[in-house]
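Batch manifest, entry 17 of 40.
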Amino acid sequence: MEAQKRFKMMQDLRRDLHMHPELGMQEHRTADIIARHLEKLDMEVRGGVAGTGVVGLLKGHNNGKTVALRADIDALPMEDKKPVSYASSIPGVAHSCGHDAHTAILLGAADILSSLKHEIEGSIKFIFQPSEDTLPGGALPMIEAGVLEKPTVEAIFSLHLNSHFQEGFAAAKSGYASTSSSTFSLTLQGRGGHVAMPRQVVDPIMMAGTVISVTQSILPKKIDPGDPLIFAYGSVHGGSAPNIIPDKVTLTGSIRAGSPEKLDEIIQLFKDISEKTADLYGGECFIDFTRGYPSIYNDPELIEIWKKAASAVVGEERVLLLNHVLTTGDDVSYFHKKVPGVYWHLGIRNEKRGYNHPLHSPNFDFNEEVLVYGAAIQVQAVIDYLKFGTHK
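Output type: structure tokens
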């Protein structure tokens, strides 16, 4: 397997990036490593895209379709607590979401595909995107910078490590594959005063309690059984003393739903409940929403191409076609809004070896042998798409 021949290269790259993590839009060292690697593969390389993004273009032996492979390259603002030799050397910054692996896998795939350049009919773009884990994300700025143009990208594949799935398994869902999300800040405005004089106050604490109770009982019933909905309060702020009714209470939280349309519906219901509650008590409410990433939509035709490619690498029995939406998100969804795409999950769970920590855990790690599977599946998917894909 060509990917197996590149294992040491990918492992060394991953460990180097893991030891030197960089936060979103600060990935200067990472971008330089990526650019230098791509330049050695004799392809057109563009750095400084949307800040710290890098794009490589590999042209085959004749004109044809253009397909893209994308990886995110940023780290998280957290400590790395793994007792390993390649632990982060930067205090408070760690690759605890697998983006170092995504980068190494894509560079491994680029190396393989470059060696097959004269057999490829069409072109391949390698998109290394900054700042996936920090809103508003790096995908939109890269799109605005023209990474899907000249030549026009007609399909895109990307992956994410996932400790929910067993090591060496590949998983994806056709259609909507992740939730659409939004955070909110709800301020319930009343009229404060002494607790001994309840007729003179408008109690925002009572308003907040009613909103919390009603939303938690009513909103779940607005979703069909099996559809995902997360409506969670993260903080409650209000009051300063046990004998004073405050003027206002502020609630913050998050909403995640299975599609952009369902998210819009839940947001409107939440606004209605809040406004009617405030009106009932004689107060006011003010709500701010900050939209997160929209749902990822995986193209059904591309899913079939990806499934065959993944089966050829890991075996059909280790390829999972999911029937449920995952509640995580990724700004790759913006790429999928522009061109058909597949975002898939590479399983890394191996409890016997202790690889069972979730993403964003300070102990997150994985068996690096999965780098081979990731690169091989991406390469096979690209080759199969250029041969058999029908998107225009």
